[in-house]
Amino acid sequence: MKVISNEVIDRTWAEINNLAPQELVKLVEKLGREQPAILAYLMAAGMNDLSQEEHELLVFYGLSLWQMVNEAGFALQEISLDDLMQAEENNMKMLEYLSQESESDLIKTVETIWKGYNQKGLLMYIIEALIEESEPEEEALIEDDESRAYIFICLKTLIDCLDRAGEEAPD
C-alpha cells in the first residue's frame, strides 16, 4: 500500500475526535461489517490484562487507524483473524529479539526497522498518542508501561495488516 500522508492522518484524527458518541458507534458497526476480524481482534485484545479505559482506548485507536486507511482512499482486502494473529506473533518475536540486544545493537536494529517501515506516519501517530497518555498533566488512561507496550503491539499488528491488505481504490 502507498504511504498514508500526515495530512490524512491529522485530518482523520481531528474528525474522529469530534464525532458524537452515536457516530462513533456507527463507525464501529461499519468496521464490523467491512472488517469483522479487525473488530473481533480489537474487542478481544487485552480483555483480561487491560482496564476498561485502556481497552476502550485500544479500540478507539484501532478504529482510528482503520478510518485513516479508508480516508486515504484505499480499498482493503478482508483481513482474517489468522492474518492478525500471525502479525502479532511476528511482532512479539521482534520484541523478544530486541530485548536481547545490547544498547548499541538495539539502536542500529531499530533504525533499520524504521527505515524499512512503510507506514511511518501511522506508527508515529500511535507512538505520539501513547506518549500523550503518559503525560503527568493529563489524567492518564493507561495505568502502566506494560499496558502501554501491549497496546502498542496490538496497534502495530493492525497497522502491519492494514498495510498488507491495502490497495488503491479504483476511480
Task: Summarize this entry quickly.
By secondary structure, this protein is mainly alpha-helical. Helices cover 71% and strands 4% of the residues.
- Which range best describes the helical content: under 10%, 10-25%, 25-40%, 40-55%, 55-70% or over 70%? over 70%
Q: How many domains, in number, for the residues?
A: 1
Order of secondary-structure elements: HHHHEHHHHE
Put simply, the count of helices is 8
> What strand line-up does the widest sheet have?
1-2
Kindly report the average pLDDT value: 88
Spans of at least 5 consecutive residues whose pLDDT stays below 50 are none
The largest sheet, given as strand count, sense and whether it forms a barrel, is: 2 strands, antiparallel
Q: What is the tally of beta strands?
A: 2
Beta-strand content estimate: under 5%
Q: In whole angstroms, how far apart are the ends?
A: 16 Å
Assign the structural class, choosing from mainly alpha, mainly beta, alpha/beta, alpha+beta, or little secondary structure. mainly alpha
Shape: globular
Cα radius of gyration in angstroms? 16 Å
Verbal overview:
With 171 residues, the protein is mostly helical. It has one domain (6-168). It is 71% helix and 4% strand. The chain has helices spanning 6-17, 21-34, 36-44, 52-71, 81-99, 103-116, 120-132, 145-165, and strands at residues 74-76, 166-168. Strands 1-2 form a two-stranded antiparallel ribbon.
